[in-house]
Design goal:
Elements (H helix, E strand, L loop, with lengths): L2 E7 L11 E5 L5 H14 L4 E4 L13 H12 L7 E5 H6 L3 H4 L6 E8 L7 H9 L6 E7 L4 H11 L5 E6 L4 H5 L8 E4 L14 H7 L10 E7 L7 H12 L3 E7 L4 H13 L5 E6 L4 H7 L2 E2 L1 H6 L4 E5 L2 E5 L1 H9 L5 E5 L3 H12 L3 E5 L3 H11 L2 E2 L9 E4 L15 H5 L10 E4 L8 H9 L2 E3 L1 H16 L2
Parallel strand pairs: 1-2, 1-8, 2-3, 3-4, 4-5, 5-6, 6-7, 9-10, 9-11, 12-14, 15-16, 15-18, 16-17, 18-19, 19-20
Antiparallel strand pairs: 11-13, 13-14
Length: 474
């Protein structure tokens, strides 16, 4: 079981529920202020503490000399309530080899740390070995900024080969995986921010997210790993839904965001590395924009819906075999039963699913995309129509673009106005938006004002997610 460390700048939060240790960062404090305030700070903490003075060179805010930093640490060690640990940077030992002797304490142990804000160094493994050879150290901590989620696999390998207690974390948008899965690989602890407080490092989850959303304390070496693959998954609702579903099912599994940049090479390299990673137990994933069509090239088997749409939104990995499914089609078909003429906005994987779903209920389909050639190509592939100014009576409009999505490139945009400005939305139409954050997108807001029947993206999301759970938990 890994410990959960709440990390804060220069104060003790009012609530530290479910937290094992409190890291008090003093690198932003003036030397005299830190020395004066440390006795009170350490005495007021309800849990054991770590005192850290991180240098600018390793991502912190301390600009003083080493004598000043040692003075602050000595002040902490001499308090009536000394910290459980102090954090000493490995690089400092190359200039001050006797530093650990100067900081020796009966009540306080050393965390020997190294941080790179620029990325993984070429000598990562050698650094790990050198740090574990240092005498008088309780815990070795290694942190670097991840270039992609593949860096997390290297973090796990370091943990598996450790010779003593280790903390290994990847920072930044691609590093969340290393924090969530630390218990699976025997990491000593993970640092997290406190809700309502400033992060002390890039990419930190909050203590609440780790404990509640990802069930951090229940993760172990046998936990199966699932996730959502996409290039904008930070705000995805999938982790909340699927982790709750796994908990209800009593399944030892965790579902996490897996950010992969756009492009076939990024997708291929990342998915293959995750599948081949020893002990990761990567078992399945949801697939979202922009990888739904490319993912189909990677899997060994595809169901009829995937083949018909040329896209997959759900994959499983089991005993070296990968399988693909398309639960978007199942969900959309249930929402448009009875429709006769449907306009599909967009040309990606969701749009392909919408076309197949519409045709499965007997509707004629009209496609509108930003690129006329793309619309014409889809019309040829699926034997349907390019949207024009004269389509007759339309029953349903389905937005399959990210236009209007929170955190996207066009949060305030309306896909109908952008892709098919000649479309006259009238009260008799059903308007479906596959974007679920925000719930009321510009398109849904317009349709509601007109008096249309509207189906928001959260409805679509839940339907397809339920189908995914059926696949992962047959």
């Amino acid at each position: 079981m890994s410990l959960l460390i709440a990390s804060v700048h220069g104060h003790v939060p009012e609530r530290l529920d479910g937290v094992d240790l409190l890291e008090i960062r003093i690198d932003a404090m003036e030397n005299a202020d830190a020395i004066e305030q440390l006795p009170t700070l350490l005495a007021s903490s309800p849990i054991p503490t770590i005192v850290t003075c991180r240098s600018i060179s390793e991502g912190g805010m301390f600009e003083g000399n080493e004598e000043e930093r040692v003075a602050m640490y000595r002040a902490a060690l001499d308090c009536e309530n000394p910290p459980r640990y102090i954090d000493v940077e490995h690089e400092v030992l190359t200039r001050h080899p006797l530093l650990l002797d100067a900081l020796a304490s009966e009540h306080t142990d050393i965390i020997l740390s190294w941080h790179s804000t620029e990325g993984r160094p070429a000598d990562l493994v050698q650094r790990a070995a050198a740090m574990q050879d240092v005498n008088g150290v309780a815990i070795v901590k290694m942190v670097w900024r991840a270039r992609s989620i593949r860096d997390n696999v290297e973090a796990f390998q370091l943990l598996q080969s450790r010779q003593q207690p280790m903390i290994v974390i990847c920072m930044g948008e691609y590093g969340l995986m290393s924090r969530i899965l630390a218990p699976k690989f025997g990491g000593f602890a993970v640092y997290a921010s406190v809700p309502g407080c400033e992060q002390t490092a890039s990419g930190q989850a909050t203590t609440k997210e780790l404990r509640s959303l990802y069930r951090f304390n229940e993760i172990n070496s046998n936990t199966l790993v699932y996730g959502v693959i996409g290039n904008n998954v930070e705000h995805s609702a999938s982790p909340a839904f699927h982790n709750a579903a796994f908990e209800v099912a009593g399944k030892n599994a965790v579902y996490i965001p897996l950010a992969i940049p756009e492009g076939w090479e990024h997708l291929k390299a990342t998915v293959l590395e995750l599948c081949n990673a020893p002990s990761l137990d990567f078992s399945g994933a949801s697939v979202t924009i922009p990888h739904k069509t490319n993912m189909l090239k990677l899997i060994d088997e595809a169901d009829a819906n995937c083949k018909n749409a040329g896209a997959t939104n759900t994959v499983t990995f089991n005993d070296g075999t990968s399988s693909g499914y398309n639960t978007d089609i199942v969900a959309l078909a249930s929402l448009i039963s009875g429709a006769k003429r449907v306009v599909v906005l967009g040309g990606g994987g969701v749009a392909r699913a919408a076309i197949v779903a519409s045709q499965s209920v007997g509707a004629s389909v009209y496609i509108a995309t930003r690129n006329t050639e793309q619309a014409e190509s889809l019309a040829t592939i699926f034997s349907c129509n390019v949207a024009t100014d004269n389509m007759g009576k339309i029953d349903a409009v389905i937005n399959c673009t990210p236009v209007g999505m929170e955190g996207g490139n066009s949060e305030e945009g309306n896909p109908a106005q952008a892709l098919l400005p000649s479309l006259d939305i009238v009260p008799s139409m059903t308007v479906i938006d596959t974007v679920y954050k925000p719930k009321e997108t510009p398109l849904i807001k317009q349709a509601n004002e007109i008096g249309c029947t509207t189906i928001t993206g959260d409805v679509m999301f839940r339907l397809q997610a339920v189908e995914q759970q059926k696949i992962w938990n047959p």
